[in-house]
Specification:
Elements: H1 2-8, E1 25-26, H2 28-35, H3 44-52, E2 59-61, E3 64-68, H4 69-77
Antiparallel strand pairs: 1-3, 2-3
């Protein structure tokens, strides 16, 4: 279901990334607030799944994860979602 939510996010609904944040590292919350409008913002859990899959670049310092806003925006712009890919179901 979360994968379906990702398909709904179109580039026109993303907030424009301002150049003033290009070299600045930010927290997860700051990145989500800066890049997405409130109605299409992914949940914390979904964002963690993106990290595990390597879809979102981050730098880890100790236990803290930091994000470069420009790199994250570029990674999301280049992200391609396959709408025909579905989960495998067990035969009953």
């Amino acid at each position: 279901m979360q994968q379906d939510r990702l398909k709904e996010i179109s580039p026109s609904r993303l907030k424009k990334c301002s150049s003033q944040h290009g070299g600045r590292y930010m927290s997860r919350r700051e990145v989500l607030e800066e890049l997405f409008t409130e109605d299409v913002r992914p949940s914390e859990r979904t964002w963690q799944r993106f990290e595990r899959k390597g879809l979102v670049p981050f730098t880890q310092m100790g236990k803290r994860k930091l994000y470069n806003l420009q790199k994250v925006a570029d990674a999301l712009d280049n992200l391609e979602v396959n709408p025909h890919k579905s989960r495998k179901r067990k035969a009953s």
